């Protein structure tokens, strides 16, 4: 993928902010069965942490996690911890993930999202909740499948037009 | 000479150090929130920040519903109108009978010297969204502190009790459903008058009566209503129907599973009832202190229903 990829324009901060706002909106939408709905914030966070590790780091991840917790009325800090860990692993892997093809990237992201979900489940279990069943792993896997479309969408503002290319 | 990297290579602390910092911050916050409930101020500030996002997120769905209503066909409207008229007629009859019955009941209550029951104030609210957390049985409604919602108020729909307001933000409040595993509600069996406490059982969407003796006077299909002796829920509202009873001689208690009467996981509109507790006598001092301490620890959950029930039943 990297070989085919053109040299991208530098990213604008507004793109990143808008994508996070969009992801939060998607997360707050009234979905049906929440176990199969992917965590859009985690997905977008993984994307930017891999693409722009110097702009989107643990501080951003932690703040987003706190917002998610407060919006959902759950224990403060559980998503903050999960997203911090997710951003850390994503930044750690950021140098190698982009050299892989789309399929391998998707696998990497699946592991990332599963780890983040597992942290939330563990915190809930520690706080005394019952185990919700293995269906809880479906959401992250669905999220990983969205990695390809999401990459295409979020890189669109950075791609150069054909005309510019010729010049 | 000192060899430090030029300033444009500086990236702040190492990632591992940052992870350690943010992880400890999260865990500290978790402990503070779970054990001591000191983070409520931070929570309501963050909730206020997230509120516009939440409203915008639910807007498309409301719009779609609105457009659907707008384009509903004439025949459907006529049909619905007829149905509603018939229903209104039936309800009007019921209401007349209810008024008479209430007057009679008030008179009888005066005769036996019981306290007058306060009329229950109710305000309608729309469900904004459900909590994005499969473990917590919670919904968020569009009425908050500015509309006079107070923590602890019972929430009902047209079929019965849905849950209880557990947190109040300025413009929205959080309702813990009856099926939440931390939620308890004092009930009474309509047929036999037996008192009990129903506990939520989590994601399965059912309620459970705990500590019912094996030979308790209860059977399948029994209707449960609020007993009203906790001072939180008004008496006589439908709560659940008994669906399964397991009486096993090996255990001390029978296992009674009930299905909530209200659409706990359905519907878009609910009623927030006022929790007027003026008719109750003041509680003894020591219990009040204990209660306050409990509340500081666990917040305004419905957990303190069983001790309260005991206290009022004795008095």
What can you tell me about this protein's structure?
The complex is a heterodimer of chains A (167) and B (315). Chain A has one domain (13-160). By secondary structure, chain A is mainly α. Chain A has helices spanning 13-28, 40-51, 58-72, 78-97, 102-126, 138-145, 147-155, 162-166. Chain A starts with 12 loop residues before the first helix and ends with a helix. By secondary structure, chain B is of the alpha+beta class. Chain B folds into three domains: 15-66, no CATH class; 72-112; 121-277 and 300-315, Thrombin, subunit H (Beta Barrel), CATH 2.40.10. Chain B has five helices and twelve strands. Chain B has helices spanning 15-36, 40-70, 74-111, 285-298, 305-314; strands at residues 122-130, 138-141, 154-157, 160-168, 173-177, 184-189, 195-200, 207-213, 223-226, 238-246, 253-260, 269-273. In chain B, the strands form two sheets. Chain B has a six-stranded antiparallel β-barrel. In chain B, a hairpin with a 2-residue loop joins strand 3 and strand 4. The N and C termini of chain B lie far apart (84 Å). Mean pLDDT of chain B is 77; it is low at 300-315. At the A-B interface, helix 1, helix 3 and helix 4 of A face helix 1, helix 2 and strand 1 of B.
């Amino acid at each position: 993928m990297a070989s085919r990829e053109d040299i991208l324009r530098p990213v604008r901060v507004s793109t990143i902010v808008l994508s996070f706002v969009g992801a939060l909106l998607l997360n707050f939408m009234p979905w049906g069965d929440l176990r199969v709905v992917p965590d859009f914030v985690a997905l977008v966070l993984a994307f930017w942490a891999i693409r722009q590790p110097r702009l989107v780091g643990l501080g951003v991840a932690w703040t987003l996690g706190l917002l998610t917790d407060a919006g959902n009325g759950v224990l403060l800090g559980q998503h903050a911890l999960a997203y911090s860990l997710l951003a850390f692993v994503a930044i750690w892997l950021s140098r190698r993930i982009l050299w892989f093809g789309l399929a391998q990237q998707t696998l990497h992201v699946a592991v990332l999202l599963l780890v983040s979900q597992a942290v939330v489940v563990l915190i809930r279990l520690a706080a005394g909740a019952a185990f919700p069943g293995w269906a809880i792993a479906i959401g992250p896997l669905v999220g990983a499948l969205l990695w390809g479309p999401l990459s295409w969408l979020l890189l669109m503002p950075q791609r150069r037009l054909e005309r510019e290319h010729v010049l | 000479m000192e060899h430090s990297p030029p300033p444009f290579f500086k990236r702040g602390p190492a990632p591992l150090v940052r992870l350690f910092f943010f992880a400890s911050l999260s865990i500290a916050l978790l402990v503070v929130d779970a054990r001591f409930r000191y983070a409520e101020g931070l929570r309501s500030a963050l909730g206020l920040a997230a509120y516009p996002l939440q409203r915008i997120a639910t807007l498309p769905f409301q719009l779609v519903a609105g457009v659907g209503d707008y384009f509903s066909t004439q025949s459907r409207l006529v049909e619905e109108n007829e149905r509603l008229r018939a229903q209104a007629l039936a309800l009007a009859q019921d209401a007349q009978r209810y008024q008479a019955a209430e007057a009679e009941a008030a008179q009888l209550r005066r005769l036996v010297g019981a306290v007058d029951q306060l009329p229950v104030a109710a305000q309608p609210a729309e469900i904004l969204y459900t909590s994005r957390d499969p473990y917590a049985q919670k919904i968020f409604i569009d009425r908050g502190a500015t509309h006079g919602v107070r923590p602890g108020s019972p929430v009902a729909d047209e079929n019965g009790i849905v849950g209880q307001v557990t947190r109040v933000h300025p413009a929205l409040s959080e309702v813990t459903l009856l099926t939440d595993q931390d939620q308890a509600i004092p009930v009474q069996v309509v047929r036999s008058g037996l008192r009990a406490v129903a506990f939520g059982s989590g994601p399965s969407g059912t309620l459970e009566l705990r500590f019912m003796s094996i030979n308790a006077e209860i059977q399948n299909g029994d209707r449960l209503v609020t007993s009203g002796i906790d001072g939180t829920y008004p008496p006589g509202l439908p709560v659940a129907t008994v669906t399964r009873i397991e009486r096993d001689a090996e255990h001390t208690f029978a296992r009674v599973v009930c299905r909530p009467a209200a659409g706990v996981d359905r519907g878009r509109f609910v009623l927030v009832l006022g929790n007027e507790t003026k008719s109750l006598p003041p509680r003894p001092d020591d219990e009040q202190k204990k209660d306050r301490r409990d509340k500081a620890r666990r917040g305004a959950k419905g957990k303190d229903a069983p001790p309260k029930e005991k206290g009022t039943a004795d008095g």
